[in-house]
Specification:
By secondary structure, this protein is mainly α. It has 19 helices and 2 strands.
């Protein structure tokens, strides 16, 4: 088989690609993640679904052709992954951030991202201390079924058969995305394709999306063709609109490229790596130091890619002005202190859960989804339950609209 192991600095390039494209989607804005948690806007679900479908067919197709991959689906230890996923979902609903989107938000110059960082580092440090306890070992080792994918253990897969399963898997994901309305109360991509029309309700939702994404950003009057694409394509309810389809497929291919070159694409382990330098003698820190690979480089790349896109493409760069997400301010007011507490506390909970589950949306759901990992879907289900439940408690029936 053809096998490659790339140097660590390549992670910087891949991170820039992911950070720049994902910033285009608007996920660096915490309101996008909060609306996902409230099940008002499922943009991230549709885009990751398409990326996973394209990635799964690509990775197992190449593997069947004799190209070796650095497969590493996360182990499916049920209790740790489920509890960690529940905590992760709750934390993202409160903070509005994911490990990767937080780095993108920092690149966009979002002030509340500055408060989330120390919360995340403390959350990672807390898991570092819990890991070597009896509770930590129980969470990791009880009901641990190892690295499973759709066709069994990753170490005993049959290339051609797994590729055929990947084809079925991709068709299922793409069909699911086609039937899933992006907006609550909106139309599915399938209906958009059949009718070619957008109703007045969805037009209003699209206008509100444009409004919240632009809040606090740079002068929006400078409309080059890339900026026009962001304004016209990203808010659309159709996941198969050219820009969203193209960028989603691109992300799936980049994840496959990462696995071919060295390792999966992840973001949350970097927080444990940083915390480990303050807790170097702990068992978990030693594990992280051995396995971290290029992730710190890809994290820096994610930040840089989002920064460049925020200044020159989307114009969402905020210069660290005090901007409070609409869902949050409609529920708790415009207090910067309250928002800082929410960002810090939510990201602490999220990162503790991510490290307990051994991954996040990038390492578990995206990279795991591409590999058809059992742990990816177990984690995703737990995150969904955690985020929706928490969002209902925290935000209730408060409007998410920019106008209040």
């Amino acid at each position: 088989m053809i096998r490659v192991t790339a140097p660590l600095w390549v992670g910087l390039v891949l991170g820039m690609l992911v950070g720049g494209v994902a910033e285009f989607w608007g996920i660096a804005n915490p309101e996008t993640v909060i609306r996902l948690a409230r099940w008002k806007d499922r943009l991230l679900v549709g885009c990751v679904g398409i990326a996973s479908a394209v990635g799964a067919v690509t990775i197992y197709g190449l593997y069947a052709l004799g190209i070796s991959m650095h497969f590493s689906p996360k182990p499916a230890y049920v209790f740790g992954v489920v509890i960690g996923g529940l905590l992760f979902g709750g934390g993202m609903a409160i903070s509005g951030y994911l490990p990767g989107s937080e780095l993108m938000a920092l690149g966009e110059g979002r002030r509340d991202a500055l408060y989330a960082i120390p919360g995340g580092l403390l959350g990672a440090a807390a898991w570092t201390m819990v890991y070597q306890t009896a509770l930590g070992h129980w969470l990791i080792h009880t009901a641990n079924y190892g690295s499973l994918v759709a066709t069994g253990s990753i170490y005993h897969i049959r290339p051609v058969f797994t590729f055929l399963i990947a084809m079925v898997y991709a068709i299922g994901l793409l069909a699911g995305v086609a039937f899933l309305p992006r907006y609550s109360g909106g139309r599915s991509s399938l209906v958009h394709a059949v009718t070619g029309k957008t109703g007045p309700t969805e037009q209003g939702l699209m206008s509100d999306t444009v409004a919240y994404l632009a809040e606090g950003g740079l002068n929006q009057q400078r409309l080059n063709w890339l900026r026009r694409t962001v304004v016209t394509e990203v808010p659309k309810g159709n996941f198969y609109a050219r820009a969203k389809l193209g960028t989603s497929a691109f992300i799936g291919v980049v994840v496959v490229l990462a696995i071919f070159l060295r390792q999966i694409f992840g973001e949350s382990t970097t927080y444990s790596w940083l915390a480990g330098h303050l807790l170097p003698n702990f068992e978990y820190s030693k594990v992280v130091f051995k396995t971290i690979g290029w992730e710190p480089f890809s994290g820096i790349g994610t930040f840089l890619g989002a920064s460049i896109a925020a200044v020159f493409v989307s114009r969402y760069f905020q210069g660290f002005r005090p901007v409070v997400p609409p869902s949050w301010r409609n529920r708790f007011g415009t207090s910067s202190v309250k928002r800082a507490i929410g960002s810090f506390a939510g990201f602490f909970i999220l990162m503790f859960g991510a490290r307990m589950a051994d991954g996040c949306t990038s390492g578990h759901i995206l990279s795991g989804g591409v590999q058809m990992a059992a742990s990816a879907w177990l984690f995703a289900a737990a995150v969904f339950i955690g985020m929706v439940t928490t969002a209902r408690v925290v935000y209730g029936s408060t409007s998410e609209k920019v106008s209040g």
